[in-house]
């Protein structure tokens, strides 16, 4: 019984891996927050160097505007795939 369960689990997992790589992400909204935080970390130093006398809130506004157009945004990836 245990061997059948293990074989079934391996088959299901490998089938999911194959289909997920070719499929479009159906729920990118679940990954937006983490993706944005990583994007903000990467861009903050660059935006701060370009605008040294702006406040943090103003820097974040600039980054947010860039994020809305960025290909790193999962919501933009979904729209581009169609």
How would you characterize the overall build of this protein?
The chain is mostly helical. It has a domain at 28-82. 76% of the residues lie in helices and 0% in strands. It has four helices and no strands. α2 crosses α3. The longest helix has 21 residues, at 2-22. The chain is elongated. Mean pLDDT is 76; it is low at 5-15 and 17-22.
- Unreliable stretches (pLDDT < 50, length at least 5) are 5-15, 17-22
Based on secondary structure, the structural category is mainly alpha
Biggest pleated-sheet summary: none
The number of strands is 0
The general outline is elongated
Q: Determine the fraction of residues in helical runs and give it as a percent range.
A: over 70%
- Mind telling me the C-alpha Rg? 20 Å
Mean pLDDT: 76
List the helices and strands in order. Answer: HHHH
End-to-end separation: 44 Å
Number of helices: 4
Hey, roughly how much beta strand do the residues contain?
under 5%
Features:
single chain; 82 residues; 4 helices
Please render the helix and strand layout as text.
Layout: H1 2-22, H2 32-50, H3 56-69, H4 74-81
Helix pairs in contact: 2-3
Describe what is shown at a glance:
The protein has 82 residues and is mainly alpha-helical. It has helices spanning 2-22, 32-50, 56-69, 74-81.
